[in-house]
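hey m, so remember when u said the tokens were messed up on ur end? i reran from scratch. heres the input so u can diff it against urs
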Amino acid sequence: MRRGVEALGLRIGVVGEIVRNIKACAGAPAFRLRAAGDVCGLGTRLQERFMDQPVPNDFKVSLAGCHRGCTDPF
């Protein structure tokens, strides 16, 4: 299963005292009328940079592109 997931360019979620998977909405002006910018692209770049980095405690990042906050960033 892991190889199949990785073949799609995805990564298996992680746990522990590291930066976990970054949650981002599909917010982009092409998909959402209220989107302030390309949130999904930003989330992808942040995940590539910070995922699996050690931190002193559980650390989660969540991004939303509008006031609805469907990814629970608040």
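this time it looks ok to me. The first helix runs from residue 2 to 7. if urs says something different then somethings off w ur setup not the seq
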